Amino acid sequence: MTSTTTTSRATVYGYPRQGAERQLKKAIESYWAGRVDADALLATARDLRLRNLAELRDAGIDEIPSNYFSFYDHVLDTSWLLGAIPERHLAAVPDATTAAGRLDRYFAMARGTADAPPMEMTKWFDTNYHYLVPELGPDTQFSLDASKPLDEFAEALEQGVTTRPVVLGPVSFLLLAKDPTGTDGFQPLDLLDRIVPLYVDLLRQLREAGAEWVQLDEPALVTDQPAEVLGKVEETYAALAREEARPKILVASYFDRLGEALPVLAAAPVEGLAIDFTGSAAANVEGLAAAGGIPRKRLVAGIVNGRNIWAADLTAALTTLGTLLGLAGTVDVAPSCSLLHVPLDVTLETDLDPEIAGWLSFARQKLEEIVTLRRGLTEDRSTIANALHVNASRLASRAASPIVRVPAVRDRVAAITDTDLHRAAPYGKRRQAQQDRLRLPELPTTTIGSFPQTGELRKARAALRAGKLDRDAYQEAMKAEIRAVIAEQEQIGLDVLVHGEPERNDMVQYFGEQLTGFLATQHGWVQSYGTRYVRPPLIVGDVARPEPMTVAWATYAQSLTERPVKGMLTGPVTMLAWSFVRDDQPEGDTARQVAFALRDEVVDLENAGIKVIQVDEPALRETLPLRTADRAAYLEWAVASFRLATSGVRDETQIHTHMCYAEFGDVLQAIIDMDADVISLEAARSNMAIVADLARAGYPNEAGPGVWDIHSPRVPSVEEIVGHLRTASSAFPADRLWVNPDCGLKTRGYPEVRATLANLVEATGQVRARS
């Protein structure tokens, strides 16, 4: 069978930035520590970009992107591109005429300085990637600095490759922004007329440099947008298209269906659209047909899922591509989004069972899938017959594997009753029982869970894995760290302590390594934010807990102190969100399996004498479906899974949860419905805004708004923390407030942890004395 077109190309939107050995992370952190200079950091970045360029070219990618690389975050890069740099960061680094000055100002925006807090950080749509929120007010003035996209385009051109520069589109950039001034009646989208001319200028400069196509990403259009915003989209792309001296424009969307935005883009005077056709975004096929197709436009079809690690069903993908051939002028093959959301290469995972490895597709394997699909459109189908046969065999192997379906696990989930999903007594009765048992002061102080992961701890874990340290010696090293952490907290004066989690490599991976149905990787690193990379586990089959996971560590820590020590677990939604989840059953089913495993652990902790148990759900908001119509079903199973995990304890056992770095307004009712006794939330970067939100929503339980932004190296003063507490207590009852950082302290160093926690306790004492 032959295809009906010979013009299809293989392309991608972006590629992992860090390098196979996380060279970028190491170089940036060395620069921050003063071990290398700006020239060395820039040289490492250039080397990584050129390696990626060669890799993509050698894999058979016909059109390669540029400007997807970032030292920290591509939204931050767009703020820099447009000159939207907060005044405090201009003042913090006044001279940006040198390479070091530019880097230092850029990193000041991301991380802050001693005198200049960083920009707010939140989740990139429903992924675990974080972006820096642009700060735009009615008086913001813009100025174009096109050096980065131009330099990276020229860099590739020197290698003989004409790339397609990728830039965050103007509408999405403004929709992702916030107004720090809170000016009544103002929205960042009001600034569209100010930045469109800069985009026109950017397009002109890129065309002069030799660019033939430019990709403008508009992912915000897969969220619900009113007619007013869609009208702005229409006006914006009409204005950009009017510029004659420009490259062709490819407008890209991803992560979900476009809905009402699709006909607007289909009618826009641009030359191409890049559309996601995976998962729920498969509805874009029907939407495109309903819009009359785009017969005179290029379609870049996101047909290989760029967010998960499962091998694509190539035969099904070719069927979809065949349908799309009738709806567009040309059809190119691509992943659904940038490949920065998946690990680099399955072949690095030498410990994986080869059969299971065949079920998987990381970034390099996705390149192979994309090229195979492109060949399926441009060549006789017989040329890819072997690839299709191997693919079908691997899909069949996965479906038939005994690790995928475990009857005992499925029977337990099927037997869930409503009683399993509720605490025995309402919060008011539980609160009194917990107060009688814990006897905590007003504004109790605590931390979120982790303490700094020192080099010694990482070396001990590496030595254990390498067989250079036996289990007994390793456990003694961990106990020594726990003793030190408990002593630190007692000396500082915290009320509810944590054991510091020294034994944990990651808050999800640690549990995944102890649960059946999960698999860990060696090199499956994925960027979370900046230089923070994680190795998400893979959920390949039904989940169960063979034995207790945290009880021994928690009880050891509690034996060292009279103060309560929290048991620390990661909740079922976050276990899914920060793993690569199986795609062969509804996520709610997988979440309930994980919840039962955690429920067993919670009950065991309680029976071992742990009085306070924290089950973190930082990802509950980030996994919220992008389309409003899909949210009720998600929140139903997400809340039920948390309650299933936490409802097996007695009234006097206090259940905490934690959430951070997300927009919580859309899930406030779900937070109430979770019925945790105490919730701690990120709040420092947004100046306690969440507290007023909780009050307006009528949140009935206890809350700990974070008073210290732990993603910045700065140490907040006593006065600053007092200010946060006063703001919080002015909006929410002080007798139901806790005092804590925004998030865990794993990424911070002990000097700043000691200083800030001391300030936190001192500030709390001052506020208590004045109340």
| Main β sheet profile | 7 strands, parallel
What is the count of helical runs?
28
Mean pLDDT: 95
Helix content: 40-55%
- Between the first and last Cα atoms, what is the distance in angstroms? 80 Å
Strand line-up in the sheet with most strands: 1-4-5-6-7-8-9
Low-confidence stretches: 1-5
Instruction: Please state the oligomeric state of the protein chains shown.
Output: single chain
CATH architecture of the largest domain: Alpha-Beta Barrel
- Radius of gyration, in Å, reads 26 Å
How many extended strands?
Answer: 18
Total number of domains = 2
Strand content: 5-15%
Shape, principal axes of CA atoms = globular
Secondary structure category? alpha/beta
Do you know the CATH topology of the largest domain? TIM Barrel
Describe the protein in words.
The chain is α/β, with parallel strands linked by helices. It folds into two domains: 23-400, Alpha-Beta Barrel (TIM Barrel); 434-460 and 492-770, TIM Barrel (Alpha-Beta Barrel). Helices cover 43% and strands 12% of the residues. It has 28 helices and 18 strands. It has a seven-stranded parallel sheet. Helix 24 (631-646) packs parallel to helix 25 (668-674). It starts with 22 loop residues before the first helix and ends with a helix. Mean pLDDT is 95; it is low at 1-5.
